[in-house]
Amino acid sequence: MTKSSAVLGGLLALAGTAWAQADLAAGKARAEAVCAACHGANGISIADNIPNLAGQRVAYMEAQLRALKAGTRRAPSMNAMAAQLSPADIANVAAYFGSLTPMNVAAKSPQLPALVKTNVVFPEGYKASFKMYATVNRPDINQVRYLYANDVALKAAREGKPLPDGSVLLLEQHAAKLDADKKPVVGADGFFVADRLVNYALMARGPGWGKDIPEMLRNEDWNYAVYSPEKQLRTAVNQADCLACHKPLDQKSYTFSIEPLIAAARK
Asked: What CATH superfamily classification does 3-110 receive?
C-alpha cells in the first residue's frame, strides 16, 4: 500500500467511524421537526428550488452545515437555522439524511401543516388607517417597496417597546417602471417609479399564533403571509422562508425595518 493510499484509507475509516457514532434517532427527530419545513422529513424537498438531501454524502452535508453556521457560505435562511445547530446536531442530521434512500426527483414533500396555516388576514382599507413609514428600492429585482404599519405597531415603536400582539406590518411590492435600456426609472425623490403591484407581504402577531411552529423557526407569535394584487392569499408560499430569515432579529421585534419604523412613529 502506498503512503497516499494509507492516508486515504485512514480518512475513510475516520468518516465511517463518525457516521457510526452519529445518533440517527436524534437526527431524524431534528429533521422531522425543522428540516422537513423545506427539505422534507424523508429528504425529498417541497419545491424544485430546494435540494433533496436523501442519500446525499454525509461528509458533504456536514461541511455545508458547518460553513453555513460559520457564515462562510451565505444563504440567509440556512445561516439562521445552522447557527442554532450544535456540532452533534450537524453530525446527526447529516448522518440521518445520508442514511435515506434517494427517491424520484420529481416527487415533492408536503409543507408542514403548522407552516401552511397563517392567521394573517388582509387589512382592508389599510391606506386610510395605516402609516406608510418607508420606501425601499430593490435594484437586484427591479422593485420598489412601500412599507405600512398599523397604530398598534406605531405606538410601541414610538415608545421604544417591542412590537406587541395586534401589530401588523404590510409591504407593497411593485415592479419598477423600466426605461428603454431596461433600467428602473428614478423619480425626483430618488426612488424607483412604480409600474405595477406584484404582491402584498404581511407580518402580524397575535396570542398563541406561534405555538405550533418549531422552536428553531418560531418568531415568538409572528405569522407571515403573501397576498396577490387581487388580495387573495398565496397558499403556495412557505412560511418557513420568512420565519427563518427573520429569526435572527429577535432583538428587533423580528423586523428588518424597525429603525425607520421608530423614526417615522416619532415624527
From this structure: Cytochrome c-like domain (1.10.760.10)
